[in-house]
């Protein structure tokens, strides 16, 4: 089994935000940013694994600050977790106002990527060498997120869902139930 240092596959990408990337308010479309995030996650995971990698899932993307036309957007990607054939890529998106130098954190997200061979079969990926407390925290956080996702899937599967456990909570929201 092989292992790689996290730094070996880290990627940073910076791009100028153009009017063609914007919505009617002059802010950059979230979908355009998601596309850039997917590209850098692909590049980071492929660099780590030595194979093309596909997006298996995206964990929560919260847009924290708008990005304006004319700003520089920098995306940073790093492998946070490695499984047998999958990797979790941590992403951070920042924008910079060229005139003022002010940098804003726009969003962070986690992309789960799976390495594929030329026949599109999943292939094993190198493990990670964890050298800092922060790298161990990120790896552990990915393990915890996976466990929570499995539990959520189990609790809400059609076979196991128990309406009596949730009906009152659902009624307290902006719905009208007509069973």
UniProtKB/TrEMBL annotation:
GO molecular function: long-chain fatty acyl-CoA hydrolase activity
GO terms, biological process: acyl-CoA metabolic process
InterPro entries the UniProt entry points to: Cytosol_ACT, HOTDOG_ACOT, HotDog_dom_sf, Thioestr_dom
Annotated transmembrane regions: none
Domain HotDog ACOT-type: 7-119
Keywords: Hydrolase
Domain of life the protein comes from: Bacteria
GO cellular component: cytosol
Family: Belongs to the acyl coenzyme A hydrolase family.
Entries under PANTHER family matching the protein: ACYL COENZYME A THIOESTER HYDROLASE (PTHR11049), PROTEIN VDLD (PTHR11049:SF16)
Protein name, per record: Acyl-CoA hydrolase
Species per Swiss-Prot/TrEMBL record: Formosa algae
Lineage: Bacteria, Pseudomonadati, Bacteroidota, Flavobacteriia, Flavobacteriales
